Amino acid sequence: MLFTKGHGTGNDFVILGDPDGALALTPALVAALCDRHRGIGADGVLRVVRSAKDPDGAGHAGDAEWFMDYWNADGSFAEMCGNGVRVFARYLVANGLADPGGEDLPVATRAGVVRARVGDPIISVQMRAPEVYAASTATVGQLTFPGVAVDCGNPHLVCGVHDGLPLGSLDLHAAPGYDTALFPGGVNVEFTTVGDPVEGADMHMRMRVYERGSAETLSCGSGALAVGAVALRDAGLRAGVVAVDLPGGRLTVTYDGASWWLAGPAVLVATGEVDPAALTR
Q1: pLDDT digits 0-9 by tens, 7-36
Q2: Does 220 participate in catalysis according to the annotation?
Q3: Which fold has domain 131-258?
């Protein structure tokens, strides 16, 4: 099996080219590929398949040639991945499957079609508009953090860390507790603090994230989008730019009053071949 390894601000992926939908992925195979000791190691798998060749993408075949079939590291599906879609777009262009000088590149996902503007090193993606819709809480050990639910095509819970508690002090080795009635399919939980002003941004947020199906990751693009949406709402801004710093680097969320954009680097670092049978020995 041929693969490419890529990442967006440290959120890393195994990319499998499968244009005609011939590859039989299973949860066990995905988990084995993502295993950092016995596999290649990644936060998830991106299968690159033509929309018309995948049951989940076929409904978007008229709008986007390519479907991002995204799997979490534990072998579960995910609707959207903001870092993943930028890495996916980089892969398409690097392998001659999309025109780097053309119009915005459409990519089908389980959350709908998004559009990427491919630059070097930055890729910007016009994302589905985030919906801030409910108050909730998350728990880490004995600590409880108030938060707000945000739908970015996938579920998020954005929680502010207050009272001088350092963001780095949170123990995210285990999944935070959350309201399973509000999030029956699980949720990505973001913990945030306000950062110092940065040039070119209206607001600056720092963030850590625990992703459902993958544990704590260095970055989460849709999580940054959720954080940006909450920050602008709380500041009473109807448009603006939010710089979001994560352990893996900086992402930029921009709302121009009509569209939401997520921007950041996307890098392909290796190609290779793996024996699927060896992964399960």
Answers
A1: 999 999 999 999 999 998 999 999 999 999
A2: yes
A3: Diaminopimelate Epimerase; Chain A, domain 1 (3.10.310)
